[in-house]
Amino acid sequence: RDLEALLRRAVHNSDFELYFQPLYSQQDLKACGFEALMRLRDQDGQFVPPERFIPVAEEMGIMDELGFQILKKGTMAALNWPAPMRLAINLSAAQFESGKLVQHVKDALAESGLPAKLLELEITESLLMQNTQRNLKQLTALKKMGVSIAMDDFGTGYSSLGYLWQFPFDKIKIDRSFLGGDENSNAKAMQVISTIIALGHSLEMRVTAEGVETESQVAMLNKLKCDQLQGFYLGRPAPESELEKYWADDA
Ligand code: G
Ligand code: G
Ligand code: MN
Ligand code: NA
């Protein structure tokens, strides 16, 4: 199939792009890092959605190698950002299953020279539902290297709470569905968000809200002392060449 050929080329020639979406710190509402998001183009130059190509890459058994390429590309890009701008990278289960993840992260950091403390790895809770102990072990090894670990899409999985206390995550990212409701559901969603923030803080984790699309959401999350914000209102995923604006107005 076409998509398989695209993916095979992507992994062989590192023929794909990374886009980067800014993460804002609540305190000064300035960008403090970027999340890398993989972008793959078809023959016509149109983007194929990650929701479509990532499952195929996993089926093909190349997601582990592709994940390694993403780590290498991402850390190389982040090297050009002003410190302490951080890099967040999404991991997939295949990278844990291969048993190579820790070495891949080590290699990417060594090759790029990016300090481990500037790298944050995002995992979803579904990843911890299989091979829990084995995966937690790899996360522990990564943490020992100085890399931080975030739980992505928090609140959407089956047993968010079950894993939260089993591993010292540095950060929780509240799934964007909590911010996506209409005005009626908003008040209730706010209660839930506020509770997740309190829970995270009680476990000494930082909390990020995803899917921030309006100014009033920014104000509300500020009031709730949500540590970081991410969403289209603050910045859409963009290519490396367009990130400078996020630190240009710093001086
Ligand atoms: O921005 P967006 O449409 O790219 O992302 C859609 C989904 O694809 C998200 O769940 C995101 O976590 C996932 N995704 C995007 N880039 C990567 C990547 O580099 N690695 C992995 N494992 N998932 C990614
Ligand atoms: O699962 P993960 O959080 O890694 O997914 C990132 C995805 O979320 C990307 O597809 C990105 O484009 C999308 N995204 C980021 N911010 C927003 C937002 O404010 N609104 C919506 N609808 N999607 C967003
Ligand atoms: Mn993510
Ligand atoms: Na997410």
Give a brief description.
This is EAL domain-containing protein. Residues 1-251 form the EAL domain. Helix content is 43%, strand content 21%.
What would your notes on this structure say?
- The protein has one domain (2-248): TIM Barrel (Alpha-Beta Barrel), CATH 3.20.20.
- 43% of the residues lie in helices and 21% in strands.
- The protein is built from 10 helices and 10 strands.
- An 8-stranded mixed barrel has the order 1-2-4-5-6-7-8-9, surrounded by 4 helices.
- The longest helix has 20 residues, at 183-202.
- The radius of gyration is 18 Å and the shape is globular.
- The protein starts with a helix and ends with a helix.
- It binds guanosine-5'-monophosphate (2 copies), manganese (II) ion and sodium ion.
- The site of manganese (II) ion has 4 residues, from loops.
- It comes from Maritalea mediterranea.
- Residues 1-251 form the EAL domain.
- This is EAL domain-containing protein.
